[in-house]
DNA sequence: CTTCAAGCTCAGGTTACCTCA
DNA sequence: GTTGAGGTAACCTGAGCTTGA
């Protein structure tokens, strides 16, 4: 298998043809960022960094409280951000969504959180927003996207694997999800795509490796044979020159391994060692 | 013009929940 | 009913970039 083969195979599959993967989007995306700032009013300044770091420390210190703290941490860290955004989005959407991530918090888990932390009011607010949609009473934290939502997200992902804030907002509105959820979905989707591509690449390289190993084995064997030939000059080498036979296909004298023009230029090499041994390979082609 | 802090998004990794065999 | 594996939403972290002071 040649290099060309390598280049013409599945390695590029996910990249172009399906539009599922775009080249590292950093630059493109960053370019997109600029106009996106026009929509900053949709995303009020958050206090993510500081709060998140603080609570993260708490998490690492108290693993047993991970769940409660984790959710709370995010709520706390995004308190202003999420809730405000949510309120705004609620204004935009007109109502809270049955599929929203907030709805995935059960009353029970929120109660747990209340016991663990002091910011009850915020949780209460979330809870009250959520309660009417979470009637199943399941303690699920995770949202399960509906088929329609998944299809729409997939379609959107096929069009562009990253979203600018405007697109995110629009999609979130369309899906009755929070922009954050859309963002997370796209992040996870990109990760899945990359993982899948890596698996495909890995499989492909494995096959290549197997083929090359086989080829290598074959060449090693051939080399051994040639070395054996060299160490023990075959009978025909000891014969008078007159008895040397001519290779029928290329009309070179067999047994010497020296091509015609090698005498002119000692540095030119034949693409492949050219041996013709009428004894071991009576019908060998060159 | 340079520096710096703040904010945003992303990739990569992890966690935790859910489903299903 | 229990369990383990796989899928995936949500989260954490560090890095890079932009913007405004």
TrEMBL record:
<comment type="similarity">
    <text>Belongs to the HD-ZIP homeobox family. Class II subfamily.</text>
</comment>
<keyword id="KW-0175">Coiled coil</keyword>
<protein>
    <recommendedName>
        <fullName>Homeobox domain-containing protein</fullName>
    </recommendedName>
</protein>
<dbReference type="Pfam" id="PF00046">
    <property type="entry name" value="Homeodomain"/>
</dbReference>
<keyword id="KW-0804">Transcription</keyword>
<keyword id="KW-0371">Homeobox</keyword>
<dbReference type="Pfam" id="PF02183">
    <property type="entry name" value="HALZ"/>
</dbReference>
<dbReference type="GO" id="GO:0043565">
    <property type="term" value="F:sequence-specific DNA binding"/>
</dbReference>
<dbReference type="InterPro" id="IPR009057">
    <property type="entry name" value="Homeodomain-like_sf"/>
</dbReference>
<dbReference type="InterPro" id="IPR050762">
    <property type="entry name" value="HD-ZIP_Homeobox_LZ_Class_II"/>
</dbReference>
<keyword id="KW-0539">Nucleus</keyword>
<keyword id="KW-0238">DNA-binding</keyword>
<feature type="coiled-coil region">
    <location>
        <begin position="202"/>
        <end position="229"/>
    </location>
</feature>
<dbReference type="GO" id="GO:0000981">
    <property type="term" value="F:DNA-binding transcription factor activity, RNA polymerase II-specific"/>
</dbReference>
<dbReference type="InterPro" id="IPR003106">
    <property type="entry name" value="Leu_zip_homeo"/>
</dbReference>
<feature type="domain" description="Homeobox">
    <location>
        <begin position="136"/>
        <end position="196"/>
    </location>
</feature>
<dbReference type="GO" id="GO:0005634">
    <property type="term" value="C:nucleus"/>
</dbReference>
<dbReference type="InterPro" id="IPR017970">
    <property type="entry name" value="Homeobox_CS"/>
</dbReference>
<keyword id="KW-0805">Transcription regulation</keyword>
<feature type="DNA-binding region" description="Homeobox">
    <location>
        <begin position="138"/>
        <end position="197"/>
    </location>
</feature>
<dbReference type="InterPro" id="IPR001356">
    <property type="entry name" value="HD"/>
</dbReference>
């Amino acid at each position: 298998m040649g290099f060309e083969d390598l280049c013409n195979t599945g390695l590029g599959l996910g990249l172009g043809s399906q539009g599922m993967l775009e080249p590292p989007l950093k630059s493109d995306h960053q370019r997109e960022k600029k106009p996106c700032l026009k929509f900053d009013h949709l995303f009020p300044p958050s206090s993510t960094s500081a709060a998140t770091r603080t609570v993260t420390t708490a998490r690492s210190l108290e693993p047993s409280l991970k769940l409660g703290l984790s959710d709370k941490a995010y709520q706390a860290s995004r308190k202003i951000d999420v809730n405000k955004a949510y309120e705004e989005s609620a204004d935009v959407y007109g109502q809270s969504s049955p599929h929203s991530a907030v709805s995935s918090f059960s009353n029970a888990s929120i109660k747990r959180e209340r016991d663990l932390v002091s910011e009850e009011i915020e949780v209460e607010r979330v809870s009250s927003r959520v309660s009417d949609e979470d009637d199943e009473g399941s303690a699920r934290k995770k949202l399960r996207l509906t088929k329609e939502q998944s299809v729409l997200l997939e379609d959107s992902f096929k069009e562009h694997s990253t979203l600018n804030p405007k697109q995110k907002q629009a999609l979130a509105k369309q899906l009755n999800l929070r922009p954050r959820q859309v963002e997370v979905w796209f992040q996870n989707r990109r990760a899945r795509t990359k993982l899948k591509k890596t698996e495909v690449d890995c499989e492909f390289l494995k096959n290549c490796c197997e083929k090359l190993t086989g080829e290598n084995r074959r060449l090693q064997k051939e080399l051994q044979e040639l070395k054996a030939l060299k160490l023990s000059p075959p009978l025909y080498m000891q014969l008078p020159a007159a008895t040397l036979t001519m290779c029928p296909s290329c009309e070179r004298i067999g047994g010497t391994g020296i091509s015609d023009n090698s005498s002119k230029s000692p540095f030119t090499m034949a693409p492949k060692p050219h041996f013709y041994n009428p004894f071991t390979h009576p019908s060998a082609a060159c």
